[in-house]
TrEMBL record:
It comes from the Bacteria. Residues 67-184 form the MotA/TolQ/ExbB proton channel domain. It is a multi-pass membrane protein. This is Outer membrane transport energization protein ExbB (TC 2.C.1.1.1). GO terms for biological process: protein import. The keyword Nucleotide-binding does not apply. One of its GO terms (cellular component) is plasma membrane. The chain crosses the membrane at residues 6-26, 106-129, 149-174. Keywords: Cell membrane, Membrane, Protein transport, Transmembrane, Transmembrane helix, Transport. Belongs to the exbB/tolQ family. The lineage of its organism: Bacteria, Thermotogati, Synergistota, Synergistia, Synergistales.
Amino acid sequence: MEIFTYGGPILWVLTILSVLSLAIILERLWFFKVQSTDPQKLETALGERLYLGDHKGAAELLMSGKSSLHRVLKVAVDHWKADSDALQILLEQEVRRELFKLERGLSFLAVVSRIAPLLGLLGTILGMIDVFRNLPGFSGANMAMMAEGIWKALITTVAGLSLAIPVILSLTYLQSKVEDMEETLSRGVDFIIREKLLGRGENVEGQNS
């Protein structure tokens, strides 16, 4: 609590931002863990069912998983009777919907990574202003008090950088996961459109035409 007294309101703001950032990072890590799947294995299993015209088996296969790829492919199976162009437009809309879910919270982390060092610098500047405002009263042994005031003012800069660095690293990792998932979804759409053009699953009864 003594440190927070030195850092002032800025340090409390940085602490709140750090708690929120940690919560988002942990939630996103868990989310991506749930989203993990083997796309090649899934596409192979789905392709077999489409070849046999087994709509029920294809739907059950896709409903058994919780990943974005499962949901996108499930939409394709449900609308299998639609023509290829309409199906591709529908799948692209679904991919955008999934990407929105994947990117949730990342914009907040991006903002924190930018403003945390600035907030820390602002806290230090405010502390230095207070030190220099009292500078005329410093002399001789009082210079030790001035030095103490300076290091207290630097606390917020350290706090800001300590928050920004791990947030930047986490954000970079999470963005790479989003990019990987986007590529997986794009390949999934290509796969399902190829199966459609090849005439696979012509006997599949989609839920919608």
